[in-house]
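Fold it.
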Amino acid sequence: MVAFVKRVDLEIPDNRITEALTKVGLDVINVTRLNRKHGNIPTSTTKITFKNANNRNTFIHTGLQVDSVHFNAEAASQNKNASTMLHLSSIQSCSKVLQNKTHQNGKKSLEETTKRLFESLQQKIKKIEQTISSVETLINDDIISSSSSSHSDEDIQITTHKNEIIAVQIETLLYKSILISSIYVAPTAKIDMNIFQELYNINNNCIIVGDLNATLSEMGSTKTNARGKQLQQLLNEGIIDCVDDDSTTFEKNEYEVKLDWILGSQPLRSSITNVETHPTIGTINGHKPLTFDIQIGAEPKPTSPRLSLHFKEVKWTKFRSKLDQQLML
């Protein structure tokens, strides 16, 4: 246990201090005069080490008495600066360890997250590929099924490459059956050339009408766009022919152009007559309705099995009389 005495004259040796403390009954272990930091020069401060705390506490209360000179004693205080520096050093060490662990954990976590994201992306790509494959299979199956039952009255609906197609087959007397199809091609899409061949394979007596968003300079447009070139290529192949009518079918903000077309296979195409373009319906769409006539000899509607009765022609007096007779039996 340590205590300090300040301003002790340098002329007083350490052994005199030890003798003075021992004389009053204090158990002293060591008496040392502190030196300056630079030059190893003794100072007036003396460090006294006691055997136990009781001796140290008694000394602090009584002080040091050497001959006729009295000196006050002080308990050894904790070196706060050293403690603080040690604490800061510990914090810095812990911080470095934590940073290293955080860096390692962060790096490991980043690698694991990247791996999980990559695996998830691969799974999603695989699902998309499977979905596309399934859709293509359904489309092919639908076309094959429709082709194998050319006399079916069921609707055919196909969407491929932003080409939306709806087709229906109708039983007729003149052509047995014909296929009428409506097609829409988005302004940002290309015409799916294969779909025309597929519709023709389902039924070679076909009429295809719709908004192809195709412009042909040969049909009155100022220029031929990309879909117009595709349409021209289709007409050159000879499977499908176009109704020779250059009337504009789209009108908006003083801009008019032919975007809607009536196509058909021969000889059905030659049966189309009285093609008319009508005013637009509303102001949003801009497309003009098209109408035409075609002689196909549709099957006559079967006679209804229900009886046709004219209640106003009934002789109700005679009916009631006969009914009364029946009720009397």
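The helical segments are 14-23, 53-62, 80-148, 193-202, 226-237, 316-328.
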